[in-house]
Amino acid sequence: MTEHTIREKTCFFTGHRDIPREEYPKVQQRLERAVERLINQGVQYFGGGGALGFDTIAALTVIKLKRTYPHIRLIMILPCKDHDFSWQGEDKTLLEQILARADKVVYTAEKYYNGCMYKRNRHMAEGSGWCICYLDRPTGGTAYTASYALSVGVQLINIAEDET
User: Fold this and answer.
1) DSSP readout, 94-134?
2) Eight-state DSSP code of residue 67
3) Which of 32, 64, 87, 97 sits most deeply, having the most CB atoms within 10 A of its CB?
4) What is the pLDDT of residues 143-162, one digit of tens each?
């Protein structure tokens, strides 16, 4: 498979960490529909960034859909090996469970440094043909990543806006 073909079959996720709990069911439902639509278009690889909020919902959605679509793969692309050093309790446990069920885990740096999150986000965009995002404000890391993805030719699906 060529690099171009792999990009066409790859989608990554980016979204806000601070999604209100009452929004989770709607976000998860829209996300599931968008992922299934891409699977039906031939997308097989889904990249998650390992952050709280949307990244977690996205990874859990892919894990759920693997029951119906066993050929899809969840690839966790983390900014560094210690990116969750300040996480507590349930958040840390949930990330460990996601990583254990992922098909592959990639670290874009050994240790945390200022800018490693941006490096991870650029890595995901440059290797993908698609991005499903949850973007409801024009500034911040998600806005930067969505803008960068568009600049490198990624097709964007924003489930904060789209009724997918």
Assistant:
1) HHHHHHHH-SEEEES-SS--TTHHHHHHHHHHHT-SEEEEE
2) T
3) 32
4) 999 999 999 999 999 999 85
* pLDDT band for position 84 (cuts 50, 70, 90): confident
Query: In which residue are the tokens 């024009």 written?
Result: 138
Cβ–Cβ < 8 Å for 60, 147: no
Q: How many CA atoms lie within 13 A of 72 on its CB side?
A: 27
Beta strands in the chain (DSSP E): 10-15, 45-48, 73-78, 104-107, 130-134, 155-158
pLDDT at 74 over 50: yes
CA distances from 108 to 13, 19, 118, 143 (A): 16, 26, 10, 20
> How many Cα atoms occupy the beta-carbon half-sphere of 84 within 13 Å?
19
pTM of the model: 0.93
